[in-house]
Amino acid sequence: MIKKIKFSEGFKETNKVFLFIEEFNTSVGRLFGNGDRNKIKLFELEELTINIKSFKTPNLINKIAYKNFRKSKAKRSFEFATILLERGIGTPKPIAYLENFNWLGLQDSYYASEHLVTELTYRELVQLPNYPDGDNILRQFTKFTFELHEKGIEFLDHSPGNTLIKKQENNRYDFFLVDLNRMNFHDNMTFEQRMKNFSRLTPKKEMIAVMSNEYSKGYKEKSEIEIFEKMWFETEDFQERFAKKKRLKKKLKFWKS
User: Of 3.40.50, 3.30.200, 3.30.870, 2.30.29, which CATH number belongs to 2-114?
Assistant: First the structure.
């Protein structure tokens, strides 16, 4: 077994975090979340809480691909977090990633970052229409997304649970991206790329109206109506494809049973 591990520059407690990762599959650490796809555990390191994600074991093709052709999800998460912070975008501070390889390919991988405790995610805005200060939060979130786009950051998993939101003084909010392994970086993002990046966030037309209104204040190349129509078109298209995929999975499960 070959281990590859890298730590963020300046991080001193490397031995302890390495042990946390090595002991991940034991009773050590505290489970965080439901672990449906990837398992997350929290570990206490003096006054710092370490968030370690264990990525799902890749299939045979990906085992080989991650060894020879592609970066693992753990490595991409670490590198993308570093890039985001360099560009002034909020995300939990990256600490380390570790990959285990055998002769065939990647066996498992882990990404360690600082654990952030925040008040909500974007999901609460969707599920709770009367969430306190919801309109203000939604507008600030839209400004945050506009900043991402202006900096050429296409967050492919820009979905309800992947933005942590922390309240500051005077009804100001900070935003932190998580689940970082799928991103594209551009010199300039097209209008189509920008609008498609909103498609997974909400099926609610009234939220799209607020976001298109706020986005139009910064993006002057299109009118508010054009922004709304394109944002809603991309949202409906995603919702239709998502529903179709869900129906297909249900049929496959029925046939298997």
Answer: 3.30.200
Nearest to 99 by CA among 69, 76, 83, 115: 76
From its phi and psi, is residue 12 left (phi > 0), alpha (psi between -120 and 50) or beta?
alpha
- How many other CB atoms sit within 10 Å of the CB of residue 80? 22
With CA atoms as reference, report the closest residue to 48 among 11, 89, 75.
Answer: 11
Instruction: Please tell me the distance from the alpha carbon of residue 71 to that of residue 69, in angstroms, as a whole number.
Output: 7
Each residue's pLDDT tens digit, 15-69: 999 999 999 999 899 999 876 678 999 999 988 999 999 998 888 998 999 889 9
- Looking at the DSSP bridge assignments, the partners of residue 8 are none
Phi-psi region of 118 (alpha: psi -120 to 50; beta: other; left: phi over 0): beta
